[in-house]
Amino acid sequence: MSTDDKNRAVAAAILPLVGGAGNITSVAHCMTRLRLGLRDRSLVRDEELKALPAVMGVVEDDTYQIVLGPGTVARVTPEFEALVAEAPAAPAATPSADDLAAQGAAIRAARKARNQTPFKLFLRRIANVFVPLIPALIGCGIIAGLNGLLINLGWLPAVTPALAAIASGFMALIAVFVGFNTAKEFGGTPILGGAVAAIVVFPGVAKVDAFGQTLSPGQGGVLGALGAAVLAVYVEKWCRRWVPESLDVLVTPTLTVLVSGLVTIFGLMFVAGEVSNAIGEFADWLLVHAGAGAGFVLGGLFLPLVMLGLHQALIPIHTTLIEQQGHTVLLPVLAMAGAGQVGAAMAVYLRLPRNGSIRRTIKSALPAGFLGVGEPLIYGVSLPLGRPFVTACVGGAFGGGFVGLFSMLGTKVGSTAIGPSGWALFPLLDGDKGLGRTIAVYAGGLLTGYLAGFVATYFWGFGARLLEEFDVDTDTGPETVVAASAGTTPPPGPAPEPGPEPKPAKL
Q: Which of 49, 396, 406, 416 could bond 411 through an S-S bridge, CB–CB 3.0 to 4.6 Å?
């Protein structure tokens, strides 16, 4: 079977299990997940879906998210979209449309009451602005790292200027993309958001004197672009309400760009610039003066932040640091949470020698875990078991403390892009003491996280009751061990295959 046929077969297997084409309202994907908008959640056959070999897990959030893994999801999504487009518009047949609709409405209402707080919804919107930019950040970051290596080695001097242009072009205009996505996410006209955000990076602002200060192109960066585009959305919505329809096409875009642009130039750029500078200075100060302690806390708390969806607040901070300093010093510290998860999973494997289903899950999920894709281990192993999730956080804390300690000693480790972690972060590493030392410190942090997570889980991750419940013989079928609780939003990555779904254990 060709690769295209395989991807289409995966899409064809998923479609009927999510209620058919008529139950699909939207199709999108991120780095690892197929994200579906559903008309009726009750039509989804969860267990059959999780049992598909290609499906590593599911996560429920504002969309129904099917974890397929990096690379795979980008190939399956177009095939899935094509199947949805080709299918008849009518929804899949149901025994009682009214009953199912009522059941779906009840499920949605319960989820909304439980999880969709205004703060989380706001963070999700902010994440939706920046997440589509991650592939470009990764690609340009790797090219920038390669270019730096070639320059240091003195190789291909005729090529390095071209590589520098390729790597830097996106970052020079990232404010425009942020503005475009912001307006789209907040319900405005995307191109107007991009037009207002473009003011931030326009070289001509250097001729503007705002309150006695000459502006600099790029002042305020992505935060200024974000604020400018949000303002443009509100100005546009106000215009739509009050401007006569006959004049709307002329007046609304003109007023939107003019009002938002003036506020951006004579206010937002200065304020956002001060905030951006403060973020960079605080991050540097934190790791230089409190690196070990700060790294311990950040590495230990990142997995719980992920489970609560609060990690999304860090995305604009990472982006600001990359735009400002060329790399983010926070991501390598936070990446240690994944190392603790890997170490914990290896300990679980040894502590449950009779549970074939969980051990199969760990064996299939560990390669992805080493590459920084944590969901298979989170949802298939540590979170359902309970206490191993806590000890995985302990491993992340020690790994983060290791990287933070070396920041205090003068070796900062940064990443030129956001998204990858684990071993996948090596090509994106950057630092102030040379690439060799930077790689060594990051590798040392990973090893520390692996070891601490393993030791903490092996010796303190299991009580007698937990061992009695889970260290039992299981069948050898390909069931899925996934306890993806509703309302969680983990960092990009897939989830597992085998095993019966375990009951959440008491700590």
A: 406
DSSP per residue, 390-450: HHHHHHHHHHHHHHHHHHHTT--EEESSSS--GGGGGGGEEESS-HHHHHHHHHHHHHHHH
Burial class (CB in 10 A: 0-12, 13-18, 19+), 73: buried
Measuring CA to CA, how many Å separate 415 from each of 224, 435, 494? 22, 12, 22
Question: Domain count of the chain?
Answer: 3
Alpha-carbon distance of 109 to 171, in angstroms, equals 41
190-201 vs 245-263: helix axis angle to the nearest 10? 30
Asked if residue 223 and residue 135 are part of one domain, the reply reads yes
- Token reading at 81: 């979209």
Residue 228 lies in a domain: yes
Find out whether 448 and 400 touch, Cβ atoms under 8 Å: no
Contact 85, 18 (CB under 8 A): no
pLDDT tens digit sequence for 366-377: 998 998 888 788
Q: Rounded CA gap, 162 and 143, in Å?
A: 10
Regarding pTM above 0.85, the answer is no
pLDDT at residue 181, rounded to an integer: 95
Residues of the chain with pLDDT under 50: 90-101, 104-105, 107-108, 111, 476-507
* Whether residues 112 and 32 fall in one domain: yes
Tell me whether residue 483 is in a domain.
Answer: no
214 - beta bridge partners?
209
333 and 434, same domain (yes or no): yes
Q: Decide: helix, strand or coil at residue 59.
A: strand
Quick one: tokens of 451?
A: 């070891």
Q: Cite the active site residues.
A: 30
Please indicate, yes or no, whether residues 198 and 84 belong to a single structural domain of this protein.
no
Structural domain range at position 236 = 130-286
| Long-range Cβ contacts of 261-264 (<8 Å, 24+ apart) | 261/196, 261/199, 261/228, 263/228, 263/231, 264/196, 264/199, 264/200, 264/224, 264/227, 264/228, 264/231
